[in-house]
Amino acid sequence: MSTAGVAMGTAPKLKTSAMIASFADPGQKTAPAPFGHALAAAAEADPRIVGLTADLGKYTDMHIFAEAHPDRFFQMGMAEQLLFGAAAGMAEAGLVPFASTYSVFAARRAYDFICLDIAEPNLNVNIVGGLPGLTTGYGPSHQATEDVAIFRGMPNLTIVDPCDSIDIAQAVPQLAASDGPTYLRLLRGKVPTVLDEYDYEFELGKAKVLRGGNDVVFVSSGLMTMRALQAAAELEKHHVDVAVVHTPTIKPFDEATVLAELAGTGSRSRSRTTPWWAACSRPSPRPWSAPAGPGVWSRSGSRTSSSTPARCPRCTPSTG
Question: Do 160 and 292 belong to one domain?
Answer without folding.
Answer: no
